């Protein structure tokens, strides 16, 4: 069970590395501080969010766009309130 979690976390950690400092910091910090406490549906929403292209992901996480997927929009709200001042 722990090995499955570690494997999943390592995969997500790699996906959070986007090569854009703002995205790397926001996504990495959220993964480190909040991901373990998410429910299965929220974890699925996080995986869907990581499928966004970098330009769209930046717009969403900076609050300049709202995702049409309501579950992802809710997760983005949580990310913004968790990791941004």
Secondary-structure-derived class: mainly alpha
Q: Which fold name fills CATH's third level, the topology?
A: DNA polymerase, domain 1
Determine the N-to-C terminus distance: 34 Å
* Overall residue-averaged pLDDT value: 92
Percentage of residues in DSSP E strands: under 5%
Low-confidence stretches: none
Shape: globular
Most strands sheet = none
* Number of E-state strands: 0
* CATH architecture grouping: Orthogonal Bundle
Which percent bin holds the helix content? over 70%
Order of helices and strands: HHHHH
Account of the 3D structure:
There is one protein chain. The longest helix has 15 residues. The model has no long low-confidence stretch (mean pLDDT 92). The protein has five helices and no strands. Helix 1 runs antiparallel to helix 2, helix 2 packs across helix 5 and helix 3 crosses helix 5. With 85 residues, the protein is mostly helical. It is globular, with a radius of gyration of 12 Å. The chain has a single domain, classed as DNA polymerase, domain 1, CATH 1.10.150.
Q: Which labels suit this protein?
A:
71% helix; mainly alpha; 5 helices; 85 residues; DNA polymerase, domain 1
Topology summary:
Blueprint lengths: L1 H15 L4 H13 L6 H10 L4 H8 L8 H14 L2
Write a concise synopsis of the structure shown.
The protein has 85 residues and is mainly alpha-helical. It has helices spanning 2-16, 21-33, 40-49, 54-61, 70-83.
């Amino acid at each position: 069970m722990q090995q499955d979690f570690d494997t999943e976390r390592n995969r997500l950690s790699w996906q959070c590395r986007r090569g854009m400092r703002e995205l790397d910091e926001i996504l990495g910090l959220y993964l480190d501080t909040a991901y373990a406490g998410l429910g299965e549906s929220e974890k699925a929403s996080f995986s869907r969010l990581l499928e966004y292209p970098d330009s769209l992901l930046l717009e969403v996480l900076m609050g300049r766009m709202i995702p049409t997927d309501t579950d992802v929009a809710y997760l983005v709200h949580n990310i913004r309130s968790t990791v941004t001042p």
